[in-house]
Write a structure and sequence with these properties.
Length: 377
């Protein structure tokens, strides 16, 4: 029964953990602050009674899921909750670790917390790999910008109609010589930095390909099926799978749209209905790849060779969903264009619907048996 349960809130930091607990209708009590070590956490939770009666929670944050896995191994139920959804009184202007732990314990007892999805170790490792590749790409972009601006500062311009980063452009830039030796040292370093980031990206791409080959059949099948959507190549499909995890954990397309932060904000009262910019409250990694993919729907619907090859191994209903997405999102793009909407708003609206189609395909693959041919692919 609920009155037998003890609800525990942990305010977790790198070195310390503040602990608070409440049982039944009793007042919440602080148990103090312990060091963030498995032994210290095990010891203080051991004082709260039988493990089967403990219900522990803490906020998702930079410390990851180490405590979550530790408590599950001990036989203690634990939830990692969304920090942005923890209820806080508007009048509460005092923030301490002790009060944060008490607030978590109190909200956990009343059922006011929203648990986040926790990936298993293999899934989290694959997600880390994809995010590291994204970070390397961002570093490469910054390195390229620094190189271009350095060349511009000293009036170095390639021949007309020579596009940056082509083989001809690289041949020119490696032959550039500036008046001062120190300037040439800086130029060489900037060139080497761009080369370094390119090698990092290549290593990550190879590692991601290898990880997908070793992934469970359902994961491989979902990555393959998502590539039937226009604008969704392998890396985008892997990003969708690693960031969403289980598509089935969302019961409706609107939920996954909200998770990506692509839904409009709203401030309505009485007879006034006012919608604003997108919330951006969800997963920024997903939002980025979806917006990039959405630009492809400005082109007329067609099946590229890659998509035609994929459809041979896809269930007919999945192929039909992908084609329906092309048709609908293309019409959506040009309908909004005809209304003179800004390009940013147009691709955001298309991206919002695109994740809905991706969710439907992901749910379909997760619910269907994996055929031998697809599993071995």
């Amino acid at each position: 029964m609920k009155q037998d349960l003890t609800f525990v809130g942990l305010d977790v930091h790198a070195d310390t953990v503040a602990v608070a607990a409440v049982q039944g209708r009793d007042a919440v009590r602080s148990l103090g602050i312990v060091t963030n070590t498995p032994e210290a956490i095990r010891r203080i939770l051991g004082k709260l009674g039988p493990k089967k009666h403990l219900r522990v929670c803490y906020e998702a944050g930079p410390t990851g899921y180490v405590i979550y896995w530790q408590l599950l191994a001990m036989g203690i139920q634990c939830e990692v909750v969304a920090p942005s959804l923890v209820p806080i009184k508007a009048s509460d202007r005092i923030k301490t670790d002790r009060r944060d732990a008490e607030r978590l314990a109190r909200a956990h007892r009343s059922g006011d917390l929203s648990a986040v999805w926790v990936p298993d170790a293999a899934h989290e490792a694959l997600r880390d790999l994809v995010r590291a590749r994204e970070a390397a790409k961002q570093d490469q972009t910054r390195a390229k910008h620094r190189l271009l601006k350095y060349l511009l500062r000293y009036g170095q311009r390639a021949a007309k109609d020579t596009r940056p980063w082509t083989a001809v452009w690289w041949q020119w830039v490696r032959a550039v010589t500036l008046p001062e030796d120190n300037q040439n040292i800086v130029l060489l370093d900037l060139i080497m930095e761009v080369d370094k980031q390119a090698l990092r990206i290549a290593r990550f791409d190879a590692a991601i390909d290898g990880a997908i080959e070793k992934a469970p059949p359902k994961t491989r099948a979902t990555v393959e099926a998502l590539q039937s959507l226009r604008g969704v190549a392998k890396l985008t499909a892997v990003t969708l799978v690693t960031e969403i995890g289980s598509f089935g954990r969302f019961t409706h397309a609107s939920q996954v749209m909200s998770y990506t932060g692509l839904v409009p904000s709203e401030h309505s009262s009485g007879k006034k209905n006012r919608r604003g910019a997108i919330t951006k409250s969800g997963n920024s990694h997903l939002r980025r790849v979806l917006v990039e993919a959405a630009w492809h729907y400005r082109h007329r619907p067609r099946l590229a060779k890659r998509q035609r090859d994929l459809q041979a191994d896809l269930p007919p209903n999945v192929a039909a969903m992908a084609w329906r997405a092309q048709d609908r999102l293309h019409r959506r793009y040009w309908l909004l264009t005809a209304k003179a909407k800004p390009k940013g708003k147009i691709v955001t609206a298309v991206a919002r619907e695109l994740i809905g189609f991706a969710w439907a395909i992901g749910c379909e693959i997760e619910a269907s048996p994996i055929r031998a041919g697809r599993a071995a692919a």
